[in-house]
Amino acid sequence: MAQKPHKPTEKSRQQAQSAAGLGLPHDQIAALLGISDETLRKYYDLELGLGKAQSSAAVAKTLFNKAQGGDTTALIWWTKAQMRWAETQRHENSGPGGAPQEMVVTWRPTK
Which of the 8 DSSP states describes residue 96? Predict the structure, then answer.
């Protein structure tokens, strides 16, 4: 028996967009809608992208507001992720009195 073609509804479009915004994988969104992955991508590409983008924007706005409010963790995260700031460490090894280190290598024959 042939299946009838899928026809998206406003409700199914909203479900796809909401599920994508929550981070569900496409195969799970397709299962929720009772369709294949291929059908999901064919009919709901816009909703999948919008759901993810809107959720990311909401989280970014919350993080930004926290950083603006002085939340230290949010400030640190924002500077590292958005401003490409990084913590750097420099390790120097020196000999006595800051002189260069001397390295001695001894070769011993194997028996």
Answer: G
Give the tokens for residue 23.
């981070």
CA pair distance 33, 36, nearest whole angstrom: 9
pTM of the model: 0.69
Nearest CA among 55, 46, 59, 49 for reference residue 21: 55
Whether the Cβ atoms of residue 83 and residue 89 lie closer than 8 Å to each other: no
- Answer for the pair 48, 17: CB distance below 8 angstroms, yes or no: yes
The stretch 47-69 carries a mean pLDDT of 96
Amino acid symbol at 50: L
CA dihedral 77, 79, 83, 89 (to 10 degrees): -100
Domain extent listing, the chain? 10-82
Mean pLDDT of 54-67: 96
What's the length of the chain? 111
Across the chain, what does the average pLDDT equal?
92
